[in-house]
Specification:
With about 550 residues, chain A is α+β, with helices and mostly antiparallel strands. Chain A is built from 19 helices and seven strands. Chain A has a five-stranded antiparallel β-sheet. Chain A has a two-stranded antiparallel sheet with strand order 6-7. About 5% of the residues of chain A have low confidence. In chain B, helix 2 runs antiparallel to helix 13, helix 9 packs across helix 16 and helix 16 runs antiparallel to helix 17. In chain B, the strands form three sheets. In chain B, strands 1, 2, 3, 6, 10 and 11 form a six-stranded mixed β-sheet that branches. Chain B has a three-stranded antiparallel β-sheet with strand order 8-7-9. A two-stranded antiparallel sheet of chain B has the order 4-5. The longest helix of chain B has 17 residues. With about 400 residues, chain B is an alpha/beta fold. Classes of the chains: A alpha+beta (about 550), B alpha/beta (about 400). The interface between A and B is large, with 52 and 55 residues.
Chain lengths: ~550, ~400
């Protein structure tokens, strides 16, 4: 049964992978063909600009006459139009949609000083080039020579991958992966030559000869190799998973607790949509460069730029150190202040305790951004209440990295200690009173009782709370962003505010450097992953020690 | 069971209902609040009511989020048909093809009705990308209950500021966010500084004017009449609560102070040896998304918002906007009290003396380094010349040059 399920999954996987591969290969070959066509069209358009009308079809030339007052209100008219010569001499008007679109393309070509290339819905390509007050446009509508899809090749490759999957299913994932890799390499060449209708050698020769890069066309090969790499990584992971006992365990567990899985499926779906997809997209984004809605694959370049140079005032390593110190100090202070208040409230239980408890939870209940804004006003150099109390009027907290860091720290301690206090209070009530009575009989003092009874018994509750608290603090965006705003000069920024600055402050000229922001987030994730792994080990050993 | 049958009957009836005439929906995004929003809503409602085939959906988006939302939404084919924003981001948006060029849709006569420099501010390259609505320039607000006549020279300003400073009581004679480059630009232009050399799109702040403006900022700081880098909110509240009698601010501040405190608006006096300058100004316009599916209809609303004299007068009266349509000024000014008339005229004078902030995409790389240059000069004792040179280095690094 298990073997059959495994084979079915392997088959589906192989089929899907081949389909994706075929699709990718088709797009890259088609892209190369289009580049050749576009390059020819650009050359034709430049030729038309130089020598005027020719026997070429679908060439339009527009000439502009300068406006005296507003340079952008130039009068534009058709000088030559080989496709529709009746329009020669006609002025382009805003009422005519075709004219309007043509004028806009010409403005773009003149502004960018690059050919404007557009792919139309019917598959044709339009190129607009400009030279001074004159622009010309060429429309290429020849269909591209694509050989029909070959089912024979498709199934042959599917079978090859299926065999790879069977190797994997037989718990030889390394052989499976090698077969998969070889299959991918061979199939790229085979599918490529099929689509071209040429042999692989002829195809590459043809592309070399005509494949001058058209300046305005984004090369599809970048995203193709990105897709291929992603498919391969996903394929290899899937194969290894299929081959391992984890797969069997998962199958067993699903079969055993079918009802439970049905019950949690809405939550799993929610998690997949809200956490899983953004997570995967975020990681993928780190390998792309974003320019106003266009994404191009740049490999590890975003990471290289973030790790080696810095467009911001400080390097990422400085920010990482600040983040670690920030997290460490916060957690220590949250824990000590929270535990201190919890001990006080626990020891002096009276009618007032409840009121104090509510008061102490208030910082937690108020939205964090409001608290941050209030603290920021309180830290104001001249009219802030803190300087007034301390007699430090005129001393700016934000002009020095240390004091600005302290202002952030104080705000976040205020925000974070109630959580630790609530956790500690809960844990304190579960410690049996007999232990303290026994300690009293043995003559233990307060400190000894605290270190020998209270702390060890609080540990199981405190460890997960500390781990959670430190992850929250590591990514505590609102305090840094609202209190110190990274001042002075980015000195108090932490990694998460740095990611925000990449996305929404630096690189605005390109519509947001989302790739670098994503790369920064991946670094945060990796740091937290290592931290999580380390703390999981610590908490496991602590649990074992308690048992 | 009965309910089920009724529900089924009702459900089967729905398709039988006569289909409503198809309406074209125009989505307009803005970040107007208070009076500006009320004025816009009433203009949009009137336009909506008089057009049966159009329906306008005006949505408020907080100012801090608007630019990011537009940048993210429009390239993916989402977002509004029209939006209202300042001119300073159009360079990047035009390069990214987010904005619809409209120069072929407008006439010279139409543009002549507006303040010329605002029309030019909305152009980038060889295209016009928006129609102007209002301008915003910095000016000096003075409280008339504390100061009888606004200062005309920097000596007068310093004298008055010193007389009204009492640090122990938290009172300061003069307030402006000295560490914020935007508020520093009156000094920058006063000292003939420049950010972009003529005919260049690459910033060069390492020039004598910039260094001189940094030196002047330090000189003003050393007078001990300024509070230490107040946020705009703190600065505004200081003026309203009477802790300062003089503040540099823009027309957006009118809504906060009008009717609450007695005040006057005047041009920022020339600082020391410099010339009179109001620094950066911004021109607010209405822009069309390239992804709009109803461009003709959207342009109709666009022209109504910008060119209709009645609408512009409403924006001026109700929204307290300093509008760009000349006719609106002719229409509204005679109806205003002497004090209000003086306020509007002062802002117009301030605008005439200002420079619309550059809209080149590279300008984005200037703000951070120039704020750092101000910080280093004012608080770290850096020499103004070195601070300007350092800012230039950082700008070039950010631009990868």
């Amino acid at each position: 049964m298990k073997q059959n399920v495994r084979l079915i999954i392997s088959g589906i996987f192989a089929f899907g992978l081949t389909y994706a591969l075929g699709f990718g290969a088709q797009s890259v070959i088609k892209g190369q063909f289009e580049q050749v066509e576009v390059t020819r069209a650009i050359l034709d358009a430049h030729q038309a600009l130089k020598s005027g009308p020719s026997d070429k079809q679908n060439v339009t030339i527009v000439k502009e006459t300068k406006s005296a007052k507003y340079h952008f209100l130039n009068k534009r008219s058709y000088e030559v139009n080989t496709a529709d010569s009746s329009r020669a001499g006609t002025v382009l008007t805003g009422e005519n949609d075709q004219d309007k679109a043509r004028a806009d393309r010409h403005s773009d070509a003149r502004r960018t000083k690059k050919p404007v290339v557009q792919r139309l819905k019917d598959g044709s390509v339009r190129v607009t080039v400009a030279d001074g007050m004159k622009t010309s446009e060429v429309l290429v509508s020849e269909s591209l020579p694509v050989v029909p899809f070959s089912w024979g090749i498709f199934f042959a490759i599917s079978i090859c991958l299926f065999i790879a999957s069977i190797f994997a299913a037989k718990k030889t994932p390394v052989v499976g992966s090698v077969v998969l890799l070889a299959g991918l390499a061979i199939s790229t060449g085979v599918i490529g030559s099929q689509y071209l209708g040429l042999s692989a050698a002829e195809a590459s020769e043809f592309l070399r000869a005509g494949g001058r890069r058209a300046p305005a066309v984004v090369s599809p090969s970048g995203s193709f190799w990105g897709t291929l790499a992603a498919i391969y990584v996903a394929g290899a992971i899937a194969l290894v998973f299929i081959a391992t006992s984890a797969f069997e365990r998962s199958l067993d567990s699903v079969q055993r607790s079918r009802e439970a899985y049905v019950a949690i499926s809405p939550a799993m779906l929610g998690l997949f949509v809200l956490v899983g997809i953004p997570f995967v997209v975020g990681i993928g984004l780190a390998f792309f460069r974003h320019v106003h809605g266009d994404y191009s694959f740049v490999g590890l370049d975003n990471f290289r730029q973030i790790l080696t140079g810095s467009e911001g005032p400080h390097s990422i390593f400085y920010t990482l150190v600040v983040t670690v110190i920030w997290t460490f100090l916060n957690v220590i202070l949250h824990l000590s202040v929270g535990l201190g208040f919890a001990l006080l409230l626990h020891k002096h239980a009276s009618g007032w305790t409840r009121i104090y408890r509510v008061i102490l939870i208030i910082p937690w209940a108020v939205p964090a951004y409001l608290t941050a804004l209030i603290w920021r006003s309180m830290f104001d150099a001249d009219i802030g209440v803190i300087n007034r109390i301390l007699g430090l009027e005129g001393m700016s907290w934000m002009h020095d990295t240390f004091t600005a860091f302290c202002a952030n720290l104080i705000t976040n301690v205020w925000l974070g200690f109630p959580f630790m206090m609530v956790v500690c209070l809960g844990a304190l009530t579960s410690i049996p009173g007999d232990l303290y009575d026994a300690a009293d009989v043995d003559g233990a003092n307060g400190w000894q009782k605290f270190t020998q009874i209270t702390l060890p018994l609080l540990k199981p509750a405190l460890l997960p709370a500390t781990i959670l608290g430190s992850i929250w603090t590591f990514n505590k965006f609102e305090v840094i962003y609202l209190v110190s705003e990274g001042r002075p000069d980015g000195g108090t920024d932490i990694l998460v505010t740095e990611a925000y600055r990449w996305a929404f402050e630096r690189g605005l000229a390109q519509g947001g450097a989302y790739g670098k922001a994503a790369a920064c987030s991946v670094i945060i994730f990796l740091v937290l992953l290592v931290y999580g792994w380390m703390t999981a080990r610590v908490s496991r050993s602590a649990e074992e020690a308690l048992r | 069971m009965k309910k089920l049958v009724l529900a089924l009957v009702f459900a089967t009836c729905i398709p039988a209902l006569p289909a409503q005439a198809e309406e074209t929906v125009i989505r307009l995004w803005h970040s107007y609040t208070a009076g500006e929003r009320e004025a816009l809503d009433s203009i949009v409602k009137k336009f909506d009511d008089s057009n049966n085939s159009l329906r306008i959906e005006a949505s408020f988006v907080p100012f801090n989020a608007l630019a990011d939302k537009l940048t993210a939404a429009i390239p993916r084919g989402h977002g509004p048909d029209l939006f209202i924003f300042a001119h300073d981001r159009i360079g990047g948006w035009a390069e990214g093809k987010l904005l619809e060029p409209i120069e072929l849709l407008v006439t010279e006569e139409q543009l002549d009705r507006h303040l010329t420099s605002c029309v030019f501010a909305l152009a980038y390259g060889d295209s016009l990308y928006g129609l102007p609505l209002a301008f915003k320039a910095l000016a000096l607000f003075t409280r008339t209950d504390k100061i009888k006549a606004p200062p005309k020279t920097s000596d007068e300003l310093v004298e008055l500021a010193k007389a009204h400073t009492n640090k122990e009581k938290g009172e300061f004679g003069f307030v402006y966010p000295a560490g914020d480059f935007f508020f520093h630009t009156p000094l920058l232009y006063s000292m003939n500084g420049s950010i972009f050399p003529k005919n260049s799109k690459t910033p060069d702040v390492n020039n004598a004017g910039v260094a001189e403006s940094l030196r002047t900022a330090k000189r003003i700081k050393d007078l001990n009449v300024l509070p230490d880098d107040p946020t705009p909110v703190v600065a505004s509240s200081m003026f309203v609560s009477g802790r300062t009698p003089m503040i540099i601010n823009g027309p957006w501040f009118l809504d906060t102070v009008q009717g609450k405190v007695p005040f006057q608006v005047s041009a920022i006096p020339p600082f020391f040896e410099g010339r009179a300058a109001s620094g950066f100004s911004s021109c607010e316009g209405v822009f069309m998304s390239r992804q709009s599916k109803h461009k003709r209809a959207a342009f109709e609303l666009m022209t109504h918002l910008a060119d209709d004299a009645e609408a512009a007068a409403a924006r001026m009266m109700q929204g307290k906007q300093t509008v760009t349509l000349n006719e609106a000024w002719d229409r509204v000014l005679p109806q205003l009290s002497e004090n209000t008339k003086q306020i509007y005229s002062a802002f117009r004078d301030a605008f005439e003396n200002s420079n619309p902030s550059p809209s080149f995409p590279n300008m984005n790389a200037v703000w951070g380094p120039m704020n750092a240059a101000l910080y280093n000069t004012l608080h770290k004792g850096a020499a103004p010349k070195d601070a300007a040179a350092d800012a230039q280095k950082r700008i070039m690094k950010a631009l990868n040059k």
